[in-house]
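Structure tokens please, single chain.
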Amino acid sequence: MFDIYDLTFLAALLALAEILGILLAVDAVMRPRSSQAAIAWSIALIVLPVVTIPIYLVFGRTHFHGYREALREKEASIGAHLEDWFSRMAAMAAEPHEGLEAVEDLVRGLTRIPFTRGNRVELLVDGEATYGSMHDAIAAAESYILVQFYIVKDDGVARQLSRALIEKARSGVQVHFLYDEIGCWTLPESFLNALRDASIQVSGFKTTRGHRNRFQINFRNHRKLLVVDGRIGFIGGLNLADEYLTYRDTHLRIDGPAAQHIQFSILKDWFWATRQIPELSVAIQPAAADDLKVSIVNTGPADSMPNCSALFATLVKTARRRLWLTSPYFVPDDVMVRALQAAAIRGVDVRILLPGKADHRFVELASFTYYNEMIDCGVQLFRYQDRFLHQKVVLVDDRLAGVGTVNLDNRALYLNFEATALVADDRFARRVEAMLQADLALCEPVDRTHFDNKPLWFRVAARIARLASPLL
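Here you go.
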């Protein structure tokens, strides 16, 4: 039984927790990543401080500290070389594309690099085409290979790529392999040691590096990139795991100057992880064929503003006739919700392709609550029925297409390090249109009954999931 001293001590602890909860609620309000997140955190911290405080200390940060500062110091030490690279990339700038001025201006402002000309872009549909093209590029490597993935699993796909990298490393090709520790938490050390034994440089991204990030496991490096000799780059939705052979996913192979921009992204992440910059030969040159305009936009929690949210809001606002989007997760923030609704109201053909069955139940529950408010404004939703849809693709009118790593959820918009390739080319847009038309043929249209006809317990659970989604 508790005596009076135990009760007094417990009351003191609860009072202290309440005070700390209030102080952290102020912190959540003063440094929000979104209004929904600020409200959700502050209410939870005040109402349930004992439960919420440890969760907030681990998941509540909105900014990844130290990344930009470390890069700024390094850039200062290699200023002349970096400025020379920027100027050579600027020399490959593409001519402005009519109707895309807002996107082009934003891209240049966010990245310092314009859309570049002289690129060849191959649309890789699904895992077999993507991994096959990666193996072809690796086999042709002469100088170096840079690899970065969010998820790597010790299975057939990853082992096959590992063997290819080891073979090239033993032939004298320089190889760097970067992975996200949270995404690869099941990856055995033996897999990484096999790479190291072949003189491959291996590192985790180290999201907890720096004293202010030490307990912040909520940040992820969600990028899936590969670069060969600075001439060939890969970007898209596929990780290294057998399950991606069964997913409906999309990746790009880019030959030309834009591959250098993918390389720049990997090198910045590599420097954060290791405090080293690999010595690589840099040759910025156009691809042998085609002349596509391409930009690579990297976004993340180290940005001074929510660059990812700004980018996708701008893409939505740019659409005049058509906006087609695909995402495995649909839990958008208020900015994206209003942008999509406004686009549909002004007459844009807005279609969003979602999985028929998601792989994360909590996210799927929250997603259901957006159905009616999208449909009521004219947004068309479709649920893909063939298999799990994991691709992240956007098509704007007949002029612009994007493929990358960004999901339409709070995590991608605010917490993850992401990457998107934008291609401003009518011919490529038609290829993406044909791909998405084939996907739509395997979709079920969504109407109000998809949510309204669910049992009451499901609708209540979905509303709770939506309220809680900004916390994660």
